[in-house]
Amino acid sequence: GDSWGIFTFLCAALCNLPALPALNCSEELGPGQSIQKTYDLTRYLEHQLRTLAGTYLNYLGPPFNEPDFNPPRLARAERGPSATVDLDLWRGLTDNARLAANYRAYSRLLCYLRALDGQAGTAELRHRLGHFCSSLQGLVLSIAGVMSSLGYPLPAGPAGPPASPGTPVAPNDFLKKMDDFWLLKELQTWLWRSAKDFNRLKKKVPPAVVTLRLEARGF
């Protein structure tokens, strides 16, 4: 009847429509957006570390979880990448040098944190450490993306902690806890400084451009 006729007409009309170009809105990830995402991730990790550090220091127990505990830095703690660099000297480095230092530092700190994850004594702490390690791995990859977008090569050499046969394993439980304490302290300082680095860098690099592309067969 009438319904079948209308249906037949619509099918014929659709089959004879000209081919339309496909509309594809794509966002090109330029240096500006890559830097912004890395900055956001750094700030997120700062927030995440505050909770993780409190949980881990409570796990270590006194005196490590006491708010006024401020021990002298031991020579053993120098195995990790130190963030104790004069700020004026740090700012005097090139963008490439600062990015390379950040990349190397977080790659090494990630290796140390994964070792903590394997030693944690509670399921909650292992879960928190595992989640933080995943986020920190994302930061390492994000820094690599920023360097690539700016045309900088990644630092040569192993990303993990260097072999140090002359540095013995902590001879007692207290010194082992001291190593863990300083690891968290260094990580806090690195994240604080990195946030400032990426905040300054994003002001120097224009934002990414969102482009609208028309893709059509035969064009």
UniProtKB/TrEMBL annotation:
Keywords: Cytokine, Glycoprotein, Secreted, Signal
Protein's cellular compartments: Secreted
Main location: secreted
GO molecular function: cytokine activity
Cross-referenced InterPro entries: 4_helix_cytokine-like_core, PRF/CT
One record GO biological process: positive regulation of B cell proliferation
Pfam families assigned: PRF
Signal peptide as annotated in the record: 1-22
Keyword match Iron: no
One cellular component term from this protein's GO annotations in UniProt: extracellular space
Protein family membership: Belongs to the IL-6 superfamily.
Subunit structure: Forms a heteromeric complex with cardiotrophin-like cytokine CRLF1/CLF-1; the CRLF1-CLCF1 complex is a ligand for the ciliary neurotrophic factor receptor/CNTFR. The CRLF1-CLCF1 heterodimer binds SORL1 (via N-terminal ectodomain); within this complex, the interaction is mediated predominantly by the CRLF1 moiety. The tripartite signaling complex formed by CRLF1, CLCF1 and CNTFR also binds SORL1.
Protein name (Swiss-Prot/TrEMBL): Cardiotrophin-like cytokine factor 1
The species this protein was found in: Dromas ardeola
Biological classification of the source: Eukaryota, Metazoa, Chordata, Craniata, Vertebrata
